[in-house]
Each structure stands twice: as structure tokens, then as C-alpha cells.
Amino acid sequence: QVQLVESGGGLVQPGGSLRLSCAASGSIFSMYTMGWYRQAPGKPREFVAAITSGGSTSCADSVKGRFTISRDNAKNTVYLQMNSLKPEDTAVYYCSALYGIQRYWGQGTQVTVSS
What we know:
Layout lengths: L3 E4 L2 E3 L5 E7 L8 E7 L6 E6 L5 E3 L7 E6 L4 E6 L8 E9 L2 E4 L3 E5 L2
Parallel strand pairs: 2-11
Antiparallel strand pairs: 1-3, 3-8, 4-5, 4-9, 5-6, 7-8, 9-10, 9-11
């Protein structure tokens, strides 16, 4: 069982930045593919970004060039740096850990982009 705890959400003005963090329990964090997903009110959960155990990254077209995912295996933590935020980025952001066929989710952190 993997426990994931997100932090760093909040209220930010359009054009601003936030960095989300996700701390994971367990001793094999470095072997997980870590990801960020988000869910806006009334919409399905959608993929934002992912990073593999080897450090390869991918992200949704909607955030390309604005969001960056990274990981620190020594701290069992994955980050999502979000720049140039837009109102449409408003959502609950969830951290995900994937190992084989097992996927784990955090509880989510709210990000609100509004003036």
C-alpha cells in the first residue's frame, strides 16, 4: 500500500505560479511512474503530466510549456511546477503512483486561478 499526500494548492491570480508536491510512503518510490491528474467541477478526471522511474516525462497539450513535472527520489517526492496559470487550470489536482498494474491516488489538493 502506498500513501500519497499532496500539498501546495491554493488561490492564485491568472498568470501566477504554484508548485505542487506529493510525498509518498514506501521504499520503492524510485520504481513508480508518478503522475498528476486534475478534475474540474462537472468534468471527468484528466491527465496532466507523468514521470517514469527513468525520468522520462510527458504532459497534456493543454499544459505543455507551462507545467513541469519532476521528482526527487531521495525525498520520495514528486513535484508539479505550474507557471502562467489560467482560470481553466482551476481543479482538484491528484497525485498518482503506478507500479505494474497497481495505481494509487492521493486525496487531492485544490488549485483555484482567479482574480
